[in-house]
Amino acid sequence: MIMTETIARTSKTAPTNLPADALYKLMSWFSPSYPVGAFSYSHGLESAVEDGLLHDAKSTTTWLRDIVELGAGSADASFLARSYDAAAVADWNEVSRIDAYAKAFQASKELQLEATAQGCAFLLITAKAWPAAALTSFVRACPAVTSYPVVVGVAGAAHDIAQGSLAHAYLQAFTANLVSAAVRLVPLGQTDGQIVMAALTDVIAKVAAGAEARAVEDISSMTLAVDIASMRHETQYTRLFRS
Q: Does 190 fall in a domain?
């Protein structure tokens, strides 16, 4: 009896393999070569480094863990999940509502640019390179929707990619881009950069898995230091990044 219950519980929680075409799309969409301009944004990290808040692998890991678990990472994963659900039933009014929430969550002008510029680029590229009927309907119905996680959620639903896997890939790419920025800014060595990524494996998986359960009205952010760093970056004298 105990063994039967254990097997049943494991079958519900164990990850399933993605179909090859879905995996291929995720690897393509979130590759550094996908031209959304992610490399040009640091999410306030450049200002934090200048202020001495990040100076080694340990401090970088702590800073990024907070972003993923308590800030933009968690919020974006939830916006992605909610827009995915709305797009799955072609509720474009709900997608527009979620997009408005996602944009309102951006605490600075540069963070809003980071979210919307990448969203516009992702939608433009994906609609051309990976067309789908639902994606075409979305573009026609919601021309003003540009928030990156919302657009990704819609694209994932249009291509019938599992929402959990989509959120996981999105968060991995988001985090990897910030680690890449830290490698250049702190600076960190390439090995330390990978040590940071490895240290964030569990929190990325946790946040991706929990995104499905959170309603739009319950999404929150608690990374005030990141928000302030982003605001300070707007007037930083020497800058490599757009945020």
A: yes
Q: Are 100 and 217 in contact (CB under 8 A)?
A: no
Structure tokens given for 127: 């609609």
Q: Report, as an integer, the average pLDDT of 134-139.
A: 97
Q: Is the peptide bond before 187 cis (omega within 30 degrees of 0)?
A: yes
The pLDDT of residue 16: 60
Residue found by looking up tokens 């540069």 in the block: 110
Q: What is the pLDDT of residues 72-101, one digit of tens each?
A: 999 999 999 999 999 999 999 999 999 999
Query: With 60 as the cut, is the pLDDT of residue 8 above it?
Result: no
Contacts of 42 (CB under 8 A, 6+ apart): 178, 181, 185, 233, 240, 241, 243
Task: Report yes or no on 134 lying in a domain.
Answer: yes
pLDDT of residue 5: 35
CA separation, residue 183 to residues 30, 127, 160, 193 (Å): 19, 32, 35, 6
The DSSP secondary-structure symbol of 19 reads: P
Question: Is the distance from CB of 64 to CB of 175 less than 8 angstroms?
Answer: yes
pLDDT digits (tens, 9 = 90+) for 212-228: 888 898 999 999 999 99
Smallest Cα–Cα separation from 69: which of 192, 227, 236, 209?
209
- The domain spanning residue 211 has which CATH number? 1.10.4190.10
